[in-house]
Amino acid sequence: MRSAPVGVEKVSLYNQYTIQNMAYTEEELKKELETKEYEYGFYTDIESDTFPKGLSEEVVIALSKKKEEPEWMTLWRLEAYKGWKEMTEPEWANIHYQKPDFQDISYYSAPNKKPKYESLDEVDPELLDTFKKLGISLDEQKKLAGVAVDIVMDSVSVATTFKKTLAEKGIIFCSISEAIKEHPELVKKYIGSVIPKKDNFYAALNSAVFSDGSFCYIPKGVRCPMELSTYFRINQAGTGQFERTLVIADKGSYVSYLEGCTAPSRDENQLHAAVVELIALDDAEIKYSTVQNWFPGNKEGKGGVYNFVTKRGLCERNAKISWTQVETGSAITWKYPSCILKGDNSIGEFYSIAVTNNFQQADTGTKMIHLGKNTRSTIISKGISAGKSQNSYRGLVQVNSRADNARNFSQCDSLLMGNDCGAHTFPYIEAKNKSAQIEHEATTSKIGEDQIFYCNQRGIDTEKAIALIVNGFSKEVLNKLPMEFAVEAQKLLEISLEGSVG
Amino acid sequence: MLKIKDLHASVEGKEILTGVNLEVKPGEVHAIMGPNGSGKSTLASVIAGNEDFEITKGTILFEGEDLDEVSPEERAHKGIFLSFQYPVEIPGVSVTNFMKTAINESRKARGQEDMPANQMLKLIREKSELLDIDRKFLSRSLNEGFSGGEKKRNEIFQMAMLEPKMAILDETDSGLDIDALRIVANGVNKLKSKDNAVILITHYQRLLEYIIPDFVHVIHDGKIVKSGTKELALELEEKGYDWLKKEPVA
Ligand SMILES: Nc1ncnc2c1ncn2[C@@H]1O[C@H](COP(=O)(O)OP(=O)(O)OP(=O)(O)O)[C@@H](O)[C@H]1O
Ligand SMILES: [Mg+2]
């Protein structure tokens, strides 16, 4: 298909983006902040231009155009879109929800003021204020040497710091839109190489309409001197988020990447279908940590983010990928960060804490695909369920016939609070090689009244006691997080279990 | 300091304490003895505010205040400490972290700031030396995999850290070897003052050789059936409880 101007006339339609003046008064904002239900529930009123709702080939083309993408990218998106149209949304035994209407979503929304900031002074004060509320003031971040922040807000990067230091080492850390323009050879080679554009329903949708995201490339033999971090926020009512992240660690390199998110509380469901692809070439190591705190819905189970994410990493020879995640948010989470252990001696790790409260549903886990010889994987999953929530772990360990001496260790622990919640563990093991060693351990425990009384007796109230017990339960995973992230994660655990004792 | 009047408590409809009267003054050491299942631990739990037990009659006054409406943590803040007969395990929470939380929560309740880290360290060093506790021990998960004796010693370490006004030690001596018993008893004696009080629940006269009680009480079927001085403990050691069970209560 040539770049026949399908829908070029129609593009003009999208020039009528209305600058939405959100009807959000000071009073309402205050009210929302007062209700402690969702601590980070506030709204940033940055003028934005937004596509009308709906999805079609024209929308995909318009989006690509708006982003000034090269033709190959537009075609790639269109192929994904065609694939997606043929697919049906999957069903899961353990998750129940109202399926999103994909024609009722706007597929593009960008902050209006979009200069490249040289310093923080130039950044929209309202945005800075937002970060202050989140407790991540950029000022502090800057001082916290070792953290470069690429903020993805409403799908478009608005600030990038520490770029210089990184550039000196040849490290590329930018938005994926920028990478498509500046480093097309890298993007073209690797995008969709780990997660094919028609991999699954949500990945296909993302491939067609991804708005923005982060791109990172670490050159051969380079150790990235700082933690790279991105804060995601979903910021516009009715705007689906389709982030795309691509991390490439070239031979013998190392990078630690942090992803954290919070979202304002909304009364309507927000869909999030991100794709994260990691590529660790020979002898490289990628550590990918996530703290996720999207609005889980209120006490009655209304509202909240639908989080359908595809995350997968590919390990070449002697490479290592670790996924560490703390999931406290979303109404529905469907997420399986996976590792394809293609190269001999490669290592995959998955450390996860998933908290569900009230009516939240989480179906998370991992897939470890052992293809190379002497490949090793470790899975530590900690599920905490409270209220009427359902928390499922689903893990697949697959050992290919050629993967001699593959080893896996899995440990899945569940902690229940109260009698109305559920924890489910579904380990799937497929071993096609007799030399495989696979170990699986699972425990389920309940916070005991005697534990709480013991804490009470020492002067610790019940709320704090639960936080303490939960933190203890999650320790093995918390310990895997970079320091400053671990502190934040602990706070999140506390916030998300607040009021869960009855 | 502590005044218990005609205390009745039950669990699941079964009455366990059937009219306990007890008065403890500052500076005193009271020992409570009695056969298995007579209600000693129940009494300790009820004083500490365990809500599993329902108080059906009677009152507990602590420094003149009725504890009826006071939560367990508030009782702790007021200076009531219970060394548990069966300390519970809290996986993943280190002894140090647990103590830090406990101390700071009590300080918060009193309107004080968190204890500065260096002061906390100093306190930990001092108290762990007092009880001859290896510092490595303090980084382990609370009570998880601790031996019986280690658990008990750790309870007394916590007591030393929190410096309560009134400590109830529920069979803290059970499971301690002879050296540990001496160390723990020594620790308790060092922490004793004219302003605080200790209630020792024990089955053995041996502990009372180290920590000399001012009074010894015997509980049977949920009430105190005999009180005396330390000689009573010796008599019990010799004769057992049978003679008391048969003796009608005065
Ligand atoms: N939660 C409970 N539910 C039912 N019965 C209980 C409960 N707690 C205590 N009891 C009963 O109350 C009685 C007194 O128990 P308690 O633990 O106070 O005895 P004790 O004097 O401390 O005994 P020991 O010397 O063996 O420690 C026992 O018969 C016990 O079974
Ligand atoms: Mg007892």
| Class from secondary-structure proportions of chain B | alpha/beta
Outline type of chain A = globular
The percent range for strand residues of chain A is 25-35%
The radius of gyration over CA of chain B amounts to 18 Å
What structural category arises from helix and sheet content of chain A?
A: alpha/beta
Query: Unreliable runs of chain A, pLDDT <50, ≥5 residues?
Result: 1-48, 111-117, 136-149, 151-161, 231-240, 263-267
Q: Report helical residue fraction of chain B.
A: 25-40%
Number of helices of chain B: 9
Query: What is the assigned CATH homologous superfamily of chain B?
Result: P-loop containing nucleotide triphosphate hydrolases
Low-confidence stretches of chain B: none
CATH hierarchy: architecture of chain B: 3-Layer(aba) Sandwich
The pLDDT mean of chain A sits at 76
Biggest beta sheet summary of chain A: 11 strands, mixed
Instruction: State the order of secondary-structure elements of chain B, H for helix, E for strand.
Output: EEEHEEHEEHHEHEHEHEEHH
User: CATH top level of chain B?
Assistant: Alpha Beta
Total domains of chain B, how many? 1
Overview in brief:
The complex is a heterodimer of chains A (502) and B (250). By secondary structure, chain A is α/β, with parallel strands linked by helices.
What's the SSE blueprint?
The complex is a heterodimer of chains A (502) and B (250).
Chain A: H1 8-11, H2 26-34, E1 48-50, H3 57-66, H4 71-86, E2 109-111, H5 125-133, H6 138-143, E3 147-153, E4 156-160, H7 163-168, E5 172-175, H8 176-182, H9 184-190, H10 201-209, E6 212-218, E7 227-233, E8 243-249, E9 254-262, E10 270-272, E11 275-280, E12 285-293, E13 305-315, E14 320-327, E15 332-335, E16 338-341, E17 347-356, E18 361-370, E19 376-385, E20 390-399, E21 407-416, E22 422-431, E23 437-446, H11 449-457, H12 462-478, H13 483-497
Parallel strand pairs in A: 3-7, 6-8, 7-9, 8-11, 9-12, 10-13, 11-13, 12-14, 13-15, 13-16, 14-17, 15-18, 16-18, 17-19, 18-20, 19-21, 20-22, 21-23
Antiparallel strand pairs in A: 1-2, 3-4, 5-6
Chain B: E1 2-11, E2 14-24, E3 29-33, H1 40-48, E4 54-62, E5 65-66, H2 72-78, E6 80-83, E7 90-94, H3 95-109, H4 117-130, E8 141-142, H5 148-162, E9 166-170, H6 178-191, E10 197-201, H7 205-210, E11 215-220, E12 223-228, H8 230-239, H9 242-246
Parallel strand pairs in B: 3-10, 3-11, 6-9, 9-10
Antiparallel strand pairs in B: 1-2, 1-4, 4-5, 7-8, 11-12
Helix pairs in contact in B: 2-3, 3-5, 5-6
The structure holds adenosine-5'-triphosphate and magnesium ion.
Adenosine-5'-triphosphate is lined by residues 11-12, 16, 34, 36-42, 52, 85 of chain B.
